[in-house]
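Tutorial, part two.
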Amino acid sequence: MVGMILVFTLTCPAEGEPPVPDYLGQTPPGNLPRLFAPQVVSSAAVEFGPAFSPDGTEMYFTRLDPQFRGTILVMRRTTAGWTDPAPASFSGQFSDAGPAFTVDGRRLFFQSKRPARGTTAPRVDWQIWYVQRTENGWSEAVDLELSVVSAAGEWNPCLVQADTLYFNADYPVFGGAGIYRCRLEDGHYGTPEHLGPAVNRPGTVVVEPCLPPDERFIVFYSAAGADNMSPGERTGDLYVSFRRENGDWTPGRNLGGTVNSPAEENWPKLSPDGQYLFFCSNRAVADHHPAIYWISADVIPSPEDSGKRE
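Running the prediction step on this input gives:
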């Protein structure tokens, strides 16, 4: 596929309107999971975490090499169709993963093991970095400054607004390992806030936050819980929790057998229009390597339905 251009039919918006997302020309999945862009995005390698730009003209995702070193690849929508996947301008030298746009599309956050500022040796843990849009493309990558640094690093960034960052870390003083939230304070992200036991379920692994811009719910990965489809094992599922009016979260609920399976489901991502949930699964692949699936976001229950099961 090197040097080829993948051509799909484009839907042209009216003048002055943003492009209509066409998701690489793929047939929408409905309420059953569908492998996303087989042989184009979903290949013989391990891929996960697709992030579409808010205007639908770019898609970034992670592909692992045989040594499990991640590279963030990009595809761009042009008048001739979608370009082949190629390493993003800021990725390819060090292990990178988990691209995540701000809602305005002006910054792209990701996790990386590249050397910390002022050093030359690659890190053994993940750190959050970002690039900024410029007239000439993306800026050089910048490591994110947080008011508190986790000894285990920070990873899995999810931006819901320019001033709110969700991510994974392990801060013993604030609640231990799990999903945290930080808000901008005077231009810097402030004290991390642990989301509490409803989301960070005690006795389980909880990572990979995924939220819509209004933060009304969170989809996340959890393993080793009694309600996993493979109970007590390291194989995990996707869960959802809803934010109450007082800011608390409802207990995490397994998304069930439509989304999950006895195999591994992880790396949830919402499309920018909120219509689709992307995730990674090894449910139906002959050699059991993970691939990217997508499904209608209608499978995410309403808070009322969730509340009936609490």
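The chain has two domains: 1-144, 200-310. In part three we will examine how such features are distributed along the chain.
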